[in-house]
Sequence to fold (341 residues):
Amino acid sequence: MKKLLFAASILLSAGIASAQDTDSKAALETAKGFVRQGDYPNAILILNRALQKDASNFELQKDLAFAYYLQRDYAHAMGVAKPLAEREDADVQSFQILGLVYKALEERKDCEKMYRTALKKYPNEGVLYSEYGEMLWSKKDFKESIKQWEKGIESDPNHSGNYYNAAKYYYFTQDKVWSTIYGEIFVNLESYSKRTPEIKTILLDSYKKLFTDGNLTKGQDMKNNFVRLFLETIQSQSGYIASNGITPESLSAIRTKFIVDWFAKNATGHPFRLFDYQQQLLKGGMFEAYNQWIFGAAANLGAYENWTKLHAEEANQFNNFQRNRVFKLPATGQYYQTASK
Fold:
């Protein structure tokens, strides 16, 4: 009889837990719907009521902290978010949410301490490096910002945020290489976001800066073999083409010659996924359309739209390929930037 009662209590507990899980998942979805509509008070109401029934639910608490943050109720957001980030099982999102609250309150010292703690726990999470670097940038610690973004690129090469920030950083320095490299990686990792047109414009301007004078290597980090080979190869192939102006058409010609030469001389010693992808597009007859996709609208939107009409087959072939492929970099072995370390 006792065994039967014990079994019944176990089944009852499991049923209650299952019902709680179902109710909590429903509350999460309902609250997310209100958040998408910008109705943060209703999201907060739903999440607080759900937590009355399922007080330890981690996901409910994270969403509640985020909803308070979106509503600009930073006191309540801090009250929920900080204990979550201090838990032993704190996940990356917990630290991200607390970071947002600290930034909103301009509590930079505590925010920096929190990111250091988070990165000790999750040393390979690119999003934490990206956000930590952005916080350091806000306090004008530019040197430390780029160190964090570079660490993020090295540790988690498929997180796009670090490339976005690093490309913008290098664009405003004397460097002529890394804004072009990181910018192009970014637009392949994040091809259709609100940030993509911004980086495409930076990419076009970076190439203009690259060819401003005839000596591409002047003032560059020529001790870095990858940088040296990149600059020497592109300079040997540009010559007359660059002298007629930097346009999508001239860049397509220069970059075609660059890829052919790079794979003839340098690819074995310096394998690089971005250049592999360019070679793949070149062999597939899509490299011109790819260059138009990157540089065309940034150079002249009307001219780009006209190009896509005149070359509809090539444009459609590339667009179909682009939308159905995943650009992914290897986890190790292709990080060549050393100047910021």
Remarks:
- The first helix runs from residue 2 to 37.
- Residues 87 and 94 are 9 Å apart (CA to CA).
- Residues 176-341 form one domain.
